[in-house]
Amino acid sequence: MQFHTLFPVNRRRFLALFAYILFFVIGYLVYTRNSSYFEQITKKISVQTSANEVLSQYLIDTPGCRIPHLDPFDSSVKSLIHKVSKKDACKKEKFFIEVKSNAKLEVNVNLLRKNYNLSFDEINCVYKPILREPGHRNLTTDNQFKIGNSKILTFGVPLQEEFIVVRCFKKTQFFHEEYIALTPIIQNVEENCKKRENGFSNGDSLNVMIIGIDSISKLNFIRHFTKTHTYLRTVLKAFELRGYNKVGDNTFYNLTPLLTGFFANQYWNITKKYMFFDHLNFIWKEYSTRGYRTLFAEDMPKYALFNYNRRGFLHPPTDYYYRPFSLAVVKSDMLKRHKKKCSHSELEMQFVFDYVKQFTSTMDDKKYFLFAFTATLTHNVLNYAGYADSPSYDLLQFLHNSGTLNRTIMIFFSDHGIRFGKIRKTLLGKIEERMPFVFLTVPEWFQKKHPIITKNLRTNERRLTTPFDLRATLVHLLKFIGNNDGTLRETVSSEKGISLFEEIPINRTCADAFISSHWCVCNNRRNISPQEPIIASAANVLVDTLNHWLKNYSDKCAKMKLKKILDARVSTNKNKYVFQGNIEYLVTVITSPGEAVFEGTIKLNENTKNLTVVDDVSRINIYGNQSSCILDTHLKKFCFCV
Ligand SMILES: *[C@@H]1O[C@H](CO)[C@@H](O)[C@H](O)[C@H]1NC(C)=O
Ligand SMILES: *[C@@H]1O[C@H](CO)[C@@H](O)[C@H](O)[C@H]1NC(C)=O
Ligand SMILES: *[C@@H]1O[C@H](CO)[C@@H](O)[C@H](O)[C@H]1NC(C)=O
Ligand SMILES: *[C@@H]1O[C@H](CO)[C@@H](O)[C@H](O)[C@H]1NC(C)=O
Ligand SMILES: *[C@@H]1O[C@H](CO)[C@@H](O)[C@H](O)[C@H]1NC(C)=O
Ligand SMILES: *[C@@H]1O[C@H](CO)[C@@H](O)[C@H](O)[C@H]1NC(C)=O
Ligand SMILES: *[C@@H]1O[C@H](CO)[C@@H](O)[C@H](O)[C@H]1NC(C)=O
Ligand SMILES: *[C@@H]1O[C@H](CO)[C@@H](O)[C@H](O)[C@H]1NC(C)=O
Q: Does Secreted count among this protein's keywords (predicted)?
């Protein structure tokens, strides 16, 4: 049977059609062979998705940005992932003194009997307050605390103290010491808040709660926060920002935008090493002027956000400021004492979470802005994220069951993914480092009352978003604290971000969102052979640039040489999703001395053929004390002390 009797086409047209199809088949084969590893791994997606969610190849897929949906257990990283043993999980030993809201302490007589075989009548306790040294410009005030005079501890009455160390005795025999953070109602804070909230109605105003855990990527959250993740999805019905892209390297460079609406460079560089951070445009100040109580808590005091080789605050930045306690705990033997049970600093996280719980209980329906960030546990080791699942789950459950989340907008998030270690040499690691997890909860009644906001939040789950947008959302939320006459008050602007209550433009690119191309995950980066001459040039420009940045420290830091090119990728302007249509190379190199591993983005100017490093450069292996001879927090990651 002749083919053309079946199809009413003549032979010539058939051949043309055949050639046409052949062209596409070959094209496809060539394309898949050359296509990035990136696209190959997205093909085998086995990511858990919620029931009503369409399984897509992309996390977000918009004309401005496309981000692949990656498998958290991809073969390239599988050997690096392991679950931490539940047995190791830390349960803070239950202390017979229980902390109640408004700084009241009570004795649990059963525990006292069980642990010490003592009755309430047999013991007496004293406490000493832990105090912040009052501000003095000459000192690094923020690093000082002092222990006040001893006072008799009376149970069941509110103590007018924020942080205490308690010691208990049987007759005169000492038997127990404990550090306790309290959340008293503070008289002059309340008076100020009352005065300020005059003139603002309380209609739709929500508390703000920002709770962060350091260095947890979206993918590592899926790997390790199984209980918490399920709870966020099924019970809290949280919004998840799937297209959230970091805007700077480390915590400081990502949280400053979130808290102030500006890049950190706007305020700070090494020339400002004696600067206090009091005057920054912190979003909590806006809430404070509207009668909100404010709280700021962080663990790991040495490496804290505004304190690591920086000067911190001259005066407490918020009404409730956890830092003196954090300093005292780290200096005490508390952590050592719990070492058997809490071997991976879970205790410090637990302390911060307990403080948050207690604060919300004390405040009840009073309005507040709370920012808590915990870093010790998860900062350095990829899989320690597993230890943070239970404490996080417990915290969220508490906040939900106590009704707190029904009057609160909560941002539960991380600043970036893990920045160091083996996983950073894989493509998956390079992407996930730039994409921390971010969830938002908004009370159901608020969502019902503001359906457009709710719709926009759902839409924005799959748009390109940044820390600046979180800030803009908190600015937007201020509008719901109306005047008594029902009108809305104009608010501070936040021009780098877009409120998530509004629709993020579908065509938003990294450039629109103030994400430099070094951090941009929308870039579709293809593998390119490190042997290509252009890559050698790019790698040399990278190393030369680092040496140039270290010029002022040339007496202290060794001059680096390129030792090896580990990996190279290219984004080309043939791809419509590429950032600004430039050709850019993401190059990973080892330098010597020091065996440092750096990852930089080098842009090719097609007219001048000039190569330049874009924005910051990542250091992707731990530098430890290699750079202990310099203090510059930005340049430390590059320097190898001679
Ligand atoms: C507990 O203390 C009582 C005295 O107060 C003593 O008789 C009893 O043996 C103690 N129990 C234990 C288990 O030590
Ligand atoms: C603080 O510095 C000023 C001027 O630099 C000096 O006069 C003063 O004595 C210093 N105070 C303390 C407590 O060090
Ligand atoms: C340091 O920051 C200030 C602004 O805060 C800026 O004017 C100055 O140029 C910066 N210096 C360097 C070396 O970047
Ligand atoms: C949440 O708050 C709303 C408005 O105040 C109230 O109507 C609703 O009953 C509350 N829901 C719960 C579960 O407490
Ligand atoms: C995005 O779309 C808006 C209007 O739809 C337009 O004004 C804007 O220029 C577009 N931006 C880009 C980067 O294409
Ligand atoms: C080196 O120091 C000088 C003077 O302190 C400063 O102006 C310059 O910006 C510094 N250079 C670099 C690369 O930091
Ligand atoms: C090439 O880039 C370097 C910086 O890396 C710059 O100093 C130089 O002026 C540029 N040359 C041209 C021709 O643009
Ligand atoms: C750096 O740390 C290593 C171990 O981590 C130690 O052996 C070495 O003495 C340290 N060097 C300096 C200069 O502190």
A: no
